[in-house]
Amino acid sequence: MAFRVLAVDDSSTVRAVLSKTLRISGIEVSCFGEASSGTEALEMLREEQFDLVFCDLNMPGMTGFELVETLRQQGLLESMAVVVVSSIGDDVAIEELRTKGVRGYLRKPLRPEEVRRLVDRVTGATNGPAR
Questions:
Q1: Structural domain tally of the chain?
Q2: Which helix (H) or strand (E) holds 112?
Q3: Residue 89 has what pLDDT?
Q4: What's the CATH number where 33 sits?
Q5: Looking at the predicted structure, is the pLDDT value of residue 40 above 70?
Q6: Per-residue confidence (pLDDT) for residue 45, from 0 to 100
Q7: Is 111 within a domain?
Q8: Res 93: pLDDT
Q9: Interstrand relation of 81-86 and 104-107 (parallel, antiparallel or unpaired)
Q10: Is 129 a member of any domain?
């Protein structure tokens, strides 16, 4: 199964690393969208449907926390898997995000085997064994 993925991070380097990490991990991606802010992500989500959204928390303008809350209020968290990708390791914040509907959390820097395991878990995908 190929996934439509949206990477939301104000760093183009992090978005490129995520794209490469998905490829290395063997996850099939049919579309890789990029947004540099929560506001840009919302605009893209109005136009296109994504299966997976990888979202940073610390971004200028609309933060990842605000994006998640907006997606929850709009009922979009049921139709796509949102995974937070951040260097923030605050257990309280992570648990709060999970109660809002975030399905997973990845800590930077990304490792292909962790990304693979998490994507398989949050999507129920069976793309083969994790590497």
A1: 1
A2: helix 112-123
A3: 74
A4: 3.40.50.2300
A5: yes
A6: 96
A7: yes
A8: 85
A9: parallel
A10: no
The upper half-sphere exposure of residue 20, i.e. CA atoms within 13 Å in the direction of its Cβ, equals 9
Answer whether residue 66 shows pLDDT above 90.
Answer: yes
- Nearest alpha-carbon partner for 85 in 37, 18, 12: 18
- Contact by Cβ (8 Å): 67, 46: no
Rounded to two decimals, the pTM is: 0.91
Encode burial over 69-98: b for 16+ CB neighbours within 10 A, e otherwise.
bbbbeeebbeebbbbbbbeeeeeeebeebe
User: Do residues 4 and 49 make contact, with C-beta atoms less than 8 angstroms apart?
Assistant: yes
Amino acid of residue 81:
A
Give CA–CA dist 87/89, Å, rounded: 6
Indicate whether 95 belongs to any domain.
Answer: yes
Percentage with pLDDT > 70 across the chain: 95
End-to-end Cα separation, the chain, in angstroms: 17
